[in-house]
Amino acid sequence: MPLFDAYATHYEDWYATPRGRLVWELEWRCLQKLLSLRPGEKVLDAGCGTGVVSRALAAAGAEVTGIDISPAMLAVAREKGAGGNIVYLEGDMSSLPFPDASFDAVVCFTALEFVAEPERALEEMWRVLKPGGRLLVGVLNHRSSWARRRKGKGVFAHAHFYSVRELEQLLRKLNPCRVKWQGVIYFPPELPSWLFSLVPLFEFLGRLFFKSSAAVLIFRADKCL
């Protein structure tokens, strides 16, 4: 049974909490800025889970294909939003069932941590990306206070937390034209909700002085024309 099948029915409960909504808002803002999505572009959401990112991409005007290895997660994704400009498929991101150069952009958000062969998965994402396209990879950062709290617990017991250097080295092997990244979520996980008004200050100071300590690292690699 795929790892996430057991978590499917309550996976999105986190996003319904004030803390979860705030985290997702910050993550999506960062992801959207790096992606520079153009309406009508074909985007692959690799490791789409219950479709949180897929739905956001579709709402922003993309034609989205979400792929995941977990049937239970995909069942939730289809229930929450399929049809129209989102299609969900069951499959392994380490062996994508698409021809070369199929997508304008590929997004893999907090999924690479759970892949047994991340280098092979990245090579597959790169293969299906069109020349001139963008690969966005968001990973959990091993240096953050969030990682220290999560490691060894629940599904995170199976996760590999990345560093900036480690993920950049993996992406450089793809021979991209350019690699850039941003960090997001600098406020501590224990921050009480009555101090959420200070989150913009945490984000500003974090990006300025502690960039590599973000909870989530989002990388963009551009494929040469």
Automatic annotation (TrEMBL):
InterPro entries for this protein: Methyltransf_11, Methyltransf_Superfamily, SAM-dependent_MTases_sf
Transmembrane segments: none
GO annotation terms (biological process): methylation
Domain named Methyltransferase type: residues: 44-137
Keyword Secreted: no
SUPFAM superfamilies: S-adenosyl-L-methionine-dependent methyltransferases (SSF53335)
One Pfam family, short name: Methyltransf_11
Keyword check for Acyltransferase: no
Keywords of the record: Methyltransferase, Transferase
Any one GO molecular-function label of the UniProt entry: S-adenosylmethionine-dependent methyltransferase activity
Residues making up the signal peptide according to the UniProt record: none
Name this protein carries in UniProt: Methyltransferase type 11
Organism this protein belongs to: Ammonifex degensii (strain DSM 10501 / KC4)
